[in-house]
Protein 1
Amino acid sequence: MEENSESRTTATADNGSNSDSSTSTLAYDKLFVCSAPGLLTLLEIVFGLLVWMLIGGTEYLQVPALVWVMLVSVVCWVLTICLLLVGLVSGRTRFPQIPWNTLDLCFNSVAASLYTTAAVVDAASITQAIRGRHSYNSWIVSTICAFLVAICYAVSACLSFRSWKNQR
C-alpha cells in the first residue's frame, strides 16, 4: 500500500515538471512596473480610484457637476487599468502593428485635459457641501486626488510625447 502512494507522488511530481516546461502565451513584464510610465500608471490608478470612491460615497447626484467628475474618473480609471494590463503582459511587443506611442500620447493628453477640468469642477463643487460634514471632507480629498491624477497624466503625456518624437 505504501508503494502505491509513493508511485502516485512520483507521477504527480513528473506531471508537475512537465507543465513547467510548457510556455505561457502571456508573459509578465516585471520591468514595466519599475519603469517611469509603469509607476505613473499605478499612481493614476490609485489616485483615480480614490477620486471616484470618495465622491461615490456621498450624495453626489445632488450636485450635477460632480456627475462629470465621476464620468471622467471612472472612464479614465477603467482605460488606465486596460493599458496597465497590456503593459504587464507585454502586449506592446505582441501587437507591434498598433501605434502604441501615438495611442499613449493621445490617451494621456486627453486624460490630463479631462482630469484638469474635472478637478476644477470638483473644487468648485465643494462650496455646495456643508463644512464639517462627510461630503465636504470627501470632496476636498477627492479634489486633491483629482489634481494629483491630472499631474500624473500630464507627466505621462510628456513621457509619451518624448517616446513618440524619438520613434519618428
Note: The helical segments are 2-21, 30-34, 36-56, 64-88, 91-94, 100-125, 134-167.
Protein 2
Amino acid sequence: MAGSPWRPAGRWLKRAEAVALGPGWRHACHVLLYAPDPRRLFGCIPLRYVVLMQMRFDGRLGFPGGFVDAQDGSWENGLNRELHEELGEAAAAFRVEGSDYRSSHADSRRQVVAHFYAKRLTPEQMAAVEAGAPHAKDYGLEVLGMVRVPMYTLQDGVGGLPAFLENSFIGVAQEQLLEAIQNLGLVDPGSFLHLKIKTPTHH
C-alpha cells in the first residue's frame, strides 16, 4: 500500500511488538464503540448494532481517540482521557480496558503506531454518548460529528455498508473497521460477499 498522509505504509504488530518499539515512536489509541440495536429499518432490515465513527476535522472518517503520552501512564489511560475530550461526560460511564485491545499498526515513515480497541456499550450508554457528544470540548474543532456505520447491505448490493466504505478514511481506519465488525460478528456475514475490499486477516 503506498504511503500518504492519510493512507500510511506500515505493518501490523502484536501488542508486545508495539511495546518494544522504543522511545522514538509516538502512540495513538482509538476505539470502535458499539451497542446492540434490535430495531429494523423499514420494518424488515435488521440494524443489528450501532457502530460509531467520527467525521474528523480533515473531512475523513476515523474513530474516537488520539495521541497518548508518558504522562498518561498507559495507552488505555490516554485513550480514556481522549474520549472524555471528544465525547464529553458520557464517556465517564464506561472505561476502555486492555481486554478491549485488538491490533497495532506501525507507520515507520512517521514513526507513529496506531493502537485499536473495540468496546461494547449498553444501548443506554450509547444513547448518552450520541446525545452528549455535541457538548464535548473538541466538538466542532477536531470532531465535526458522530457517524453511525450501517451494519447491513440493501438488496441492490450497494446501499448500506458497501456504499459507506466508499468514503475517505484516515490511516488504516477502514481496515480496522472491517476486521472488528467481521470478527466480532457485528454484521451479517453475507454483507461481505458484496464488498470489493479484501478484509484484513491480522489480529
Note: The CA atoms of residues 182 and 189 lie 7 Å apart.
Protein 3
Amino acid sequence: MDSSNKTITTTAPLSPCSASPRRNSPSPPRVVVTPCAACKILRRKCAEKCVLAPYFPPNDPIKFSTAHRVFGASNIIKFLQELPECQRADAVSSMVYEANARLRDPVYGSAGAICQLQQQVNELQAQLAKTQAELVNMQCQQANLMAFIYMEMGQSPPTSPEQSLDKFANTGHGNFQNNMNFLDESNNFGSLWETLWT
C-alpha cells in the first residue's frame, strides 16, 4: 500500500442544482489530498476518483470515524453516489451530525435533541403569554386606580392611561407648588411674629 500523500486537482462539472447567472464562467478547481481519512481508516488504497476524498480530508479523521461507526462505510459510499455532487457536502454534514447525536443518545439520536429544543420553545412561549397577561392586568389596575383618584378629586377621568398619567403629574405638581407657597408664607408669618415679640 502506498502511504505517500499526493494532491489531485480536478474540475467539478457544472451540475443543474448549482445554477449560476454566468454559465460560461469555468468552475473553480477542487483540491483533493489523498489518501483521504476514510481510506486511511479503512486501510485501502485511495483511488484517483475516490468519492469520499473531497469530504473526509486526512487532517480530520474523527469526522469519518464518527459517521463510519453509525452508518458504515458501504452505506456512506452508496448514499453519496446516489446524490448529485452539489448535494454531497450537505449530506456528509448531516450524516456526521446525526452520527454524533446517535452516539450521545443511542435511542432517539437527533430527534431527542429536537424534542428537547421544542419543549424549551413551548416553555418560553408559556412564560411569554403569562408575562403578557400580567402586563394587561397591571394596566387595568393602573386605569382603575387613576379613575378612583380622579373620582375622589372631583374631576372627570381621562380617556386614555397616558392622559391620566400626564394629568395626574400636572395636578400633583400644582399641589406640591401650592404646599411650598404655604410653607413660605408660614415662615414669613413666623418671622413677623418673632419681630413683634422682640
Note: The longest strand covers residues 6-11.
Protein 4
Amino acid sequence: MMLAAILEPVGLGLCTWGSVLAMVACVLPTWRVTAFLDSNIVVAQTIWDGLWMSCVVQSTGQMQCKVHDSVLSLARDLQTARALTVVSVVLGALALAVTLAGAQCTNCVRQEALKARAVYAGGLIYVISGVLVLVPLCWMAGNIIVDFHDPKVPPSKKREIGAAIYIGWAAAALLLLGGGILCCSFGRAARSSYVVEYPNGDKKLYV
C-alpha cells in the first residue's frame, strides 16, 4: 500500500498535466502552419490552421482570425481531430474524478478494494484519453508530410507541422505514462501488506 501511495500521486500528476496540454493543443490554431520553401522570398504573411479557426499573421505583427463556418466544410482529418480531441478532454475530466474518488488521500470510498478499482478505472480512462489524442495527431502529421513532398501540391498550399501538434504529442505521452502508472498501482505488489512477528510474540501489521 505504501508503494501505491507513491504511484498514485505521480501518475495523477502526469495525467493532469497531460489533460491540460491536450486542452491547450485543442484550442491553439497552430496545427498547420505555412511552409517557407524559398528563403529568397520575403513572406508577408503566415497562415495558421487550427481545429476551430484559421489565422493570418502579417509581417507587421497584426493577426486576423476567422472561426470555421461549417464543420462539414473542413477536411476529414480536421473533423476527426476536433471530435477525438474533445472526447479526450472530456474523458480526462471524468478520469480525474474517478481517480480522486479512489485515491489514498481521499475518503470518498471507504473500502480498500473499491478504492483500488476506482484508481485502476481512472488510469484506464486516462490511457484511452491519450490514445484518442494520439490518433488524430499522427494522422494529421502524416497528411502534412505527404502533401509537403507531393509535387502536385502548389507551394502556397504546403504546410508544416505546427506547435499544437507537438504539444498534443507531449500530452498523449503524459496521459499514457500516467495512466499506466495508475493501472500499475492496482497490482497486488503495490497494495500488499505484511505481518512482522517479533521474538516476544508480538505481531505488527505493516502496509
Note: Confidence is low (pLDDT under 50) at residues 192-198, 201-207.
